[in-house]
Amino acid sequence: MNTLRGTSRVRDWVGQRHWAAWLISGLGLVLAALSMWYLIVVRALYLGAVADQGPAVLLLNALEVLLLAGFSLVLVYAGYWLATSTFEEHRVWWAGLWTMVGLAGIVTLVTFGVTVQLSQGRYVSDPTLVQELLLAAGGGALAGLLIGISTLRETVESEEARNQRDALLFVNELLRHNVLNGMQVIMANTDRLERAVDDEDARALLEANEDRAETIVDLVENVRALVRSVSNEVDLMPVSLTTVLRTEARALRQAHPDAAVTVDIETDVAVTADELLPAVFENVLNNAVEHNDSETPEVVVTVTADATTVTVRVADNGPGIDDDRKTAYFDAGEQAPESVGQGLGLYLVDVLVDRYGGSVRIEDDEPRGAVVVLEFERAQ
Are residues 337 and 198 in the same domain? Predict the structure, then answer.
């Protein structure tokens, strides 16, 4: 099967107009032919002298043969590989151009060096001259080929990354203008209907719809934050961690008035982040309350800092997290059994904190509960 597939690829290669790839393989074949001529014709005139010079010279000549053969084989195969690759033909020409530039450049340098030697009255034997030119041609062509393929790959990868970024930005706009705005209209209408309907069963259905709509809005917000982070739409900069934590703590108290939220920050501290930093603590703080089974949920946020690192510890008095789940909760789609979300909250936290050059982990609290530990680079 592999033999048939290889034969088919060769047939496709020969049958198509891959002139740049043919050029590279052709250079390899020409180099191989010249090498054979050199070894059979030129070297044959000096076999006696070579044989008299001992095993060291024979070893050098064997190495010479291997180099010439290696250069030729690599060039021939490279042309075949480029012709059967997914690269567009006009891009393959760049590899062919670089191969020719490398060959011409190195041969020119060697020729110039030999010319200088001759002008100084130094003798250069015919085999040595031909040997140096062939090795220079093979080495230069191979070096140019590697530069051309590297440039080709970088160009293609850059364009793919730019296309992916454009697609992500489009998704971000779609979520913002269509999905998010539409869900906010649905939530507003549901709230109005809930106040106007007296039937208890109907009100229960409306409340369920409103809860589901809020879940979808949270999901959209998390996805939008992920898109903006992955696409590098926002730049890193110094952000006041103190302001973010106090703002998010205030929002948590308003959303959960039965929870006791304490924030312990002695001085104003800035970290390296972006405008998405509030999403990190919004998810961590909400998780600390929403998955808390205590009669009075308690959340304690403490901040410590040194010259280079800022550590934030978010502790709760909930049921805690099993050791085998402490890492898994940061994977996309992982969530507590009672959660109605999509498991993107802590995944978003992990992605954003990693982008900021920090880290996040979960530890046990005493006597019960969990502690989310977030470390950031301190902004100077």
Answer: no
